[in-house]
């Protein structure tokens, strides 16, 4: 009989798709050949994303992992008016529910589990209907998971708007939390559909069999405990948390090192500041100007992945041309910083860069994958969060883990940071400014790197959680009745 399969339902996006595929591959390896993986591909939101997805799928198929197969879900009418990725995905999924159900029921092997992306909550109902164990694969950290689960409680405890609240919030397992670090959707007006979506997602999560979280107990133990003992769900035990991370797709460096890596080879150890704002890090010109001014004045070495202004401001132009770089950057910037700075105008191999001994600090938008990669290589951070749960992630880095130097930003002004503030923080982080704060962050980053690596080693906390999960999934395989197709 065909081996039981784990069905993955990822959403598109660099921070979501690849981490879930990587987790699926680990489940495959961990099952010792007892399982296969079936990835259900939702239609891409844009033609660009469709090309990216096709390339990723081709790469995975070419890598020869026979036990992973990809199936495209049929296209549905993509709504053109929506309030963001959350609503888009839930609209798509609602129309897709029957296709997901049909795809699972049509499999000619037992189904061990349905693992969905954090946004795919309607799929939890499909799993329940088919009697299949369901897991949410959490591509962010346990703090975000806790905020989602705790949001219905917080909503009742705080009668007004979070955006207008003074003081700090008491969130189990965390030091007092300033409301300004809540995820963007929680700061929306309570009557808005996005805010209601957030609360509803937290409630839906309670239907899952478990949460597979890309974190390690060593990073978020107190939060994981608060979820496990029901402190954030009014005493009702939440689904089990499996902290199996850091899950990072590491590939051997290419034979021909990337130009950025070659440039780093010529720099002294721990001397370079990496500035990179993730897969969607397209910054508007005023922010670019502040960064340039800070980098020019700070006199530190830097590698700046500058991916141009937001798409809307220049339709069709995502990669800046030389002319655009000249226009974006202050006059003479490239000449003045020649030798100590490299501006890279398109996607860069961030992991290979963070792995390089010359990198001493990272200005990051605090996407969870970037954070894990930085921790994995022991690089201290300057958090410049922009959106989603990134402010809460920054709070974890500064106030819980101590691996980052705080950067004062103005959330009211679209997370604006003044050049002088960035310059101060850079010199603190790389040395030369407030020596003590920078030294502490650097030391902590080294300690957390060791903890992360230990967690995934045989017998480590994440390895043990992964073994428990793999065993539970193996035991959970069910034959989905065809008549429910
Ligand atoms: O030039 C670049 C830019 C990015 N990356 C990689 O792209 C990924 C980016 O992932 P992440 O840091 O998580 O950023 P986003 O793609 O912006 O992440 C989305 O998904 C994350 C996980 O759910 C959330 O934490 C974020 O808020 C959300 O924006 C990382 O692996 C980076 O190494 C590169 O390799 N080169």
Automatic annotation (TrEMBL):
One MF annotation (Gene Ontology) recorded for this entry: UDP-glucosyltransferase activity
Keyword Endoplasmic reticulum listed? The answer is: yes
Annotated Pfam families? UDPGT
Q: Which Gene3D superfamilies match?
A: Glycogen Phosphorylase B
GO terms for cellular component: endoplasmic reticulum; nucleus
SUPFAM superfamilies on file: UDP-Glycosyltransferase/glycogen phosphorylase (SSF53756)
The cross-references to InterPro entries, in alphabetical order and at most eight, read: UDP-glycosyltransf_plant, UDP_glucos_trans
Q: Which reaction does it catalyse?
A: malvidin + UDP-alpha-D-galactose = malvidin 3-O-beta-D-galactoside + UDP + H(+)
Query: Part of which pathway?
Result: Pigment biosynthesis; anthocyanin biosynthesis
CDD domains of this UniProt entry? GT1_Gtf-like
Q: What does this protein do?
A: UDP-glycosyltransferase which uses UDP-galactose and malvidin as substrates to catalyze the biosynthesis of malvidin 3-O-galactoside, an anthocyanin conferring purple pigmentation.
Family, per entry: Belongs to the UDP-glycosyltransferase family.
Q: What is this protein called?
A: Malvidin galactosylase UGT88C3
**To which species is this protein native?**
Oryza rufipogon (Brownbeard rice)
């Amino acid at each position: 009989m065909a081996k039981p399969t784990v069905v993955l339902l990822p959403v598109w996006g660099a921070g979501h798709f690849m981490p879930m595929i990587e987790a699926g591959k680990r489940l495959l390896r961990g099952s010792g050949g007892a399982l296969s993986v079936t990835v259900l591909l939702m239609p891409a939101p844009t033609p660009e994303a469709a090309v990216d997805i096709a390339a990723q799928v081709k790469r995975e198929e070419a890598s020869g992992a026979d036990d992973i197969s990809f199936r495209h879900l049929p296209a549905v009418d993509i709504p053109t008016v929506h309030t963001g990725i959350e609503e888009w995905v839930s609209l798509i999924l609602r129309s897709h529910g029957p296709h997901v159900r049909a795809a699972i029921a049509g499999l000619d092997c037992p189904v061990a589990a349905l693992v969905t992306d954090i946004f795919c909550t309607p799929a939890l109902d499909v799993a329940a209907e088919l009697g299949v164990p369901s897991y949410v694969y959490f591509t962010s950290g346990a703090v975000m998971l806790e905020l989602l689960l705790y949001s219905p409680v917080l909503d009742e405890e705080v009668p007004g708007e979070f955006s207008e609240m003074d003081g700090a919030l008491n969130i189990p397992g965390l030091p007092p939390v300033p409301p300004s670090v809540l995820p963007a959707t929680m700061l929306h007006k309570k009557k808005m559909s996005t805010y209601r979506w957030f609360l509803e997602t937290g409630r839906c999560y309670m239907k899952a069999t478990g949460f597979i979280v890309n974190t390690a107990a060593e990073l978020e133990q107190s939060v994981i405990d608060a979820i496990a003992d029901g402190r954030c769900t009014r005493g009702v035990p939440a689904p089990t948390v499996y902290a199996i991370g850091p899950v990072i797709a590491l590939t051997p460096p290419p034979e021909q090192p990337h130009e950025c890596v070659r440039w780093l080879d010529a720099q002294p150890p721990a001397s370079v500041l990496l500035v990179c704002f993730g897969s969607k890090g397209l910054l508007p010109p005023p922010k670019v100007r502040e960064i340039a001014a800070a980098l020019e004045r700070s006199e530190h070495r830097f590698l700046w992945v500058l991916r141009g202004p937001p798409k809307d401001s220049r339709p069709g132009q995502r990669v800046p041309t030389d002319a655009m770089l000249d226009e974006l950057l202050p006059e003479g910037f490239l000449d003045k910083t020649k030798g100590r700075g490299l501006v890279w105008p398109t996607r860069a191999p961030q992991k290979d860069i963070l792995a390089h001994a010359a990198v001493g600090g990272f200005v990051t938008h605090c996407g969870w994958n970037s954070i894990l990669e930085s921790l994995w290589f022991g690089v201290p951070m300057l958090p410049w969060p922009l959106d989603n749960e990134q402010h809460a992630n920054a709070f974890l880095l500064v106030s819980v883990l101590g691996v980052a130097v705080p950067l004062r930003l103005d959330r009211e002004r679209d997370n604006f940071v003044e050049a002088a503030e960035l310059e101060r923080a850079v010199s603190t982080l790389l040395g030369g400014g407030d020596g003590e704060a920078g030294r502490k962050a650097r030391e902590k980053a080294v300690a957390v790197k060791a903890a992360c690596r230990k967690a995934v080693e045989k017998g480590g906390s994440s390895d043990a959680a992964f073994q428990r999960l793999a065993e539970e999934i193996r035991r959970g395989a069910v034959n989905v009745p065809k008549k429910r197709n």
